[in-house]
Amino acid sequence: MHILNFEAFLIAITILTLTPGLDTALVIRNSSRSGFMAGCVTSLGICSGLFVHAMFSALGISAILLQSADLFQLVKWVGAAYLIWLGLGSFRAIYKGSNKVAMLEDDNATSSARRSMREGFLSNVLNPKTAIFYLAFLPQFIDLNYSPIVQSFTMASIHFLIAMIWQCSLAFAINSARKLFKSSAMMNWMEGVTGTVLILLGGKLLLSADKL
After folding, report:
1. Which of 1, 48, 160, 199 has the maximum number of C-beta atoms within 10 A of its C-beta?
2. Contact 135, 66 (CB under 8 A)
3. 104: number of CA atoms within 13 Å, CB side?
């Protein structure tokens, strides 16, 4: 494995993964809605997006985004709008009183899995902060004597594994709590909290549009 300062990379990527953020909020929301498998599939979508950023970083496409203010701002606006849309979806679920239905969505596992996978993947790919992080972070551990693409994908694979373990563990914990607290009030509270977090993250991204 040709990765410079591998121990430092492992520690840094683990801390990043465990830090609460959009990924955590999305896994919590979908796990509370539709159970353990929905949380795991959401995580799979999120983590699959890491390889897109790894490829962009290795090929220098992220650098092009940095140099093109208009293009980069467009990506940020799209990503921010998607986060806010997801957050508003939580409040729509509360308004429609669909929580009891959502708790039974395991009967339609295919539809639930497809939606969770799509939401996880798009939320990650459309997040320019992840692109910037990969652009700034991965090159520090690249050995120029070997293929940057292979090394980038290797590091993304390690990140994928750590994130899947953490997020699936989180989904399991949320699902266990979901079985204990099957009240509409608890589900509405969970929807409200995660919806608020998603909207705030999207709003923060919009406000930082001129700063990054």
Report:
1. 160
2. yes
3. 4
